[in-house]
Structures are given as C-alpha cells and as structure tokens.
C-alpha cells in the first residue's frame, strides 16, 4: 500500500516537472539579457534581472497590435461557434428528424479531420470569395474546427440533462426555443463555459490558418507574430520568451479562476455521454 | 484511444515542424502538411499540393473510422 502511494507521488512529480519546467524556463529566460542566454550565465536565477525584453516588445515590436488581433479573432470566432454549436447540439440530441444519427457521426468526423488536410481547399475557397487578408477571414475559418468541437462536447452535455425538465416547460406553455433558452441552457452553463474556454484557447493558439490567410503585417495574430522572432537557425530567445509569457498569461488566469467549472463541464459532457 | 487521436493529430501537424525546421535542410524533415504548404502556398502548384496532403488521407480515414466506431460503441 505504502509502495503504491510512493509510486503515485513519483509519477505525479514527473508529470508536474514535465508541465512546469518549460513554463519556468520561459519566465526565467524572459528576464535575461542576450549575453546571459547565449553564454548560459546565471542559468536558474537571472542576475542581473532585466526587463529589457518586455520593454522591447511594447516599444519596438508590434506586440500590442498582435494581442489585439488575437483577442478580436478569438472572441468573435468563439461566440460564433458557441452559437452555432449550441443550436446544433440541441437539435441533434433533442429533436428527431431523419438522418439524425448519421449527422451526429459526420460532426465527429469533421472534428477529427486535421487542419493540415483542410488548409489548401479552405485557402482556395477564400481566394475564390475574394476574402483573404482580413480578421474576418480568420473569424470565419476558425469555426470550421470549433463548431464540430462545440457540438460534440455539448451533445454529451445535453444528453445528461433530463428530458423531463424540458417537457415540463413545454407542458406549461413554453415554446421550444423558450424551453431551450430558459431551462436547458442554464443547466448546461458549465458545459457552455468549458466549450467556450476551449474554443478561445484553440483560436488564441491557432497558427496555420493565421499564417496562410493573413498577409498584412498589421493584421497578424500572436502566434504568427511570435514566429517572427525565430529567424532560420537563430531565435531572439529573450524577446520570444517574454512574448510567450505574456501571451499565455490571460489563458492561465482564466483557467485558474474557472477550472472547477471546466472539470465539471468536461466530465459531464464527454465521459458520461 | 488517446494513441489513435494523437496519431491523427501528429500525422498532419504543421506548427512544430514549420517553426523548427521549415522542412529543411533540403526536404529532409517535411511532413504532409509542411510539404503541401510549400508546394501550394509558396509555389502555387495546387495540384501537387493537394496530392501531397491527400496522400495521408487513407491512413487518416482509417484512424478516424476507428475512433468513431469506438466512441459510438461507448455511447450505447
């Protein structure tokens, strides 16, 4: 028994190290000067401790602009996907129409087809529409993988909400939409929150589509902007790490604050089915 | 299950390879997505680019079918 506990602690410690050492590395490196990084001086606690990298980001790069672009795209595509995904998941779980099961399967398949396969057709489509190089392009492109994801997550969630609650509302004279908005959605709030957070993180981190669809320098999103700190074999580690630290901050803060709802949302949605 | 999913994702990953090597030196570290990016977006050879990414489709399709089957069984 005691051996098992010890083994469990060791496994936990290893997992924690795998997760936290890179994060620690990012933060530490972001406070170093170029010299300290290249010559591996004062590796674990930077001395001197410099804020130059952060100053550089805001004064000499377009970091603030990238943040803004990312925030706009991620928020808009998350809201759009939540709206479509909720409606889709609701109708696939609660209404009966021919081909419902097939359609549910198709949603899952679309979710699993990787963007690496999709980007060329998608790019050609946007070219054909004459609508590339705008944040709007990304806002329309991200739901191609967000909507199936939201739908799939929420389908599991809606299934876990007793049908009877809604039937009671219908009997009392509510319309379908009222029953959905007033009864089902409040109960599904943790699921919606989890889905929304995941969508936001996915689009905040999205790289491939943002790289391809945006040519204009002032419209670049964070990940694409960050990749510019890597020039062939050389990287501006200090600036890159400072930017990475700041870029992950909003997501980390939100997760710390909301993770209890998240866990609830995920287990109810995905596992119980 | 996790293995299946991660195989699907990794097979057509783009980000890590693009950032670390851009498929180079030469074409030694290309994978499906980076190669079709280079053919399509960089050289505008759309047919070849689509062929390059479609080459992964049989395997991806097989894996997807496996995942979908598994999930559907769990549902019932």
Quick description:
The complex is a heterodimer of chains A (273) and B (76). Chain A has helices at residues 2-30, 34-38, 52-60, 63-94, 100-112, 115-129, 135-141, 143-159, 163-171, 176-187, 189-205, 208-213, 222-227, 237-271, and strands at 230-231, 234-235.
Provide mean pLDDT of chain B, rounded. 77
Percentage of β-strand residues of chain A: under 5%
Instruction: Tell me what portion of residues of chain B adopts beta-strand conformation.
Output: under 5%
**Which chain pair shows the most residues in contact?**
A-B, 23 and 32 residues
CATH top level label of the domain at 62-221 and 247-272 in chain A: Mainly Alpha
Keywords summarizing the entry:
heterodimer, A: 273 residues, mainly alpha, MetI-like fold, two-stranded antiparallel sheet, 2 strands, globular, B: 76 residues
Question: How would you characterize this protein structure?
Answer:
The complex is a heterodimer of chains A (273) and B (76). Chain A is mainly α and 273 residues long. Chain A has a domain at 62-221 and 247-272: Orthogonal Bundle (MetI-like fold). Chain A has 14 helices and 2 strands, in the order H-H-H-H-H-H-H-H-H-H-H-H-H-E-E-H. In chain A, strands 1-2 form a two-stranded antiparallel ribbon. The longest helix of chain A has 35 residues, at 237-271. By secondary structure, chain B is mostly helical. In chain B, 72% of the residues lie in helices and 0% in strands. Chain B has 5 helices and no strands. Chain B has helices spanning 2-11, 15-20, 32-42, 46-54, 57-75. The chains are: A mainly alpha (273), B mainly alpha (76). Chain A binds chain B through residues 105, 108-109, 112-117, 119-121, 123-124, 207-208, 211-212, 223, 227, 230, 232, 273, and chain B through 5, 8-9, 11-15, 18-19, 22, 32-33, 36-37, 40-41, 46, 49-50, 53-54, 56-57, 60, 64, 67-68, 71-72, 74-75.
């Amino acid at each position: 028994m005691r051996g098992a506990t010890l083994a469990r602690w060791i496994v936990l410690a290893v997992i924690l190290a795998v997760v936290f050492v890179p994060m620690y590395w990012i933060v530490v490196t972001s406070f170093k000067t170029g010299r300290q990084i290249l010559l591996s001086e004062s590796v674990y606690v930077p001395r001197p401790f410099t804020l130059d990298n952060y100053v550089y980001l805001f004064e000499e790069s377009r970091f603030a602009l990238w943040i803004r672009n990312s925030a706009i795209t991620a928020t808009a595509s998350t809201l759009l996907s939540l709206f479509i995904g909720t409606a889709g998941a609701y109708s696939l779980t609660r209404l009966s129409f021919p081909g419902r099961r097939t359609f549910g399967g198709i949603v899952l398949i679309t979710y699993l087809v990787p963007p690496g396969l999709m980007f060329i057709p998608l790019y050609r489509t946007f070219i054909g529409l004459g609508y590339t190089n705008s944040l709007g392009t990304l806002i329309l492109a991200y739901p191609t993988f967000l909507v199936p994801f939201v739908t799939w997550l929420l389908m599991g969630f809606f299934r876990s909400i007793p049908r009877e609650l809604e039937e009671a509302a219908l009997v009392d004279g509510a319309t379908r939409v009222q029953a959905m908005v007033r009864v089902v959605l409040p109960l599904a709030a943790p699921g919606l929150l989890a889905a929304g957070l995941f969508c936001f993180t996915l689009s905040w981190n999205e790289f491939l589509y943002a790289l391809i669809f945006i040519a204009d320098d002032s419209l670049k999103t964070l990940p694409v902007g960050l990749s510019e700190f890597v020039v062939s074999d050389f990287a501006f580690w200090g600036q890159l790490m400072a930017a990475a630290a700041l870029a992950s901050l909003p997501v980390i803060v939100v997760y710390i604050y909301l993770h209890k709802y998240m866990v609830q949302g995920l287990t109810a949605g995905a596992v119980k089915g | 299950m996790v293995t299946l999913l991660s195989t699907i994702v990794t097979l057509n990953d783009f980000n890590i390879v693009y950032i670390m090597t851009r498929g180079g030196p030469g074409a030694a570290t290309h994978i499906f997505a980076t190669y079709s990016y280079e053919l399509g977006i960089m050289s505008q050879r759309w047919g070849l680019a689509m062929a390059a990414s479609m080459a992964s489709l049989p395997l991806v399709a097989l894996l997807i079918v496996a995942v979908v089957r598994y999930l559907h069984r769990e549902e019932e």
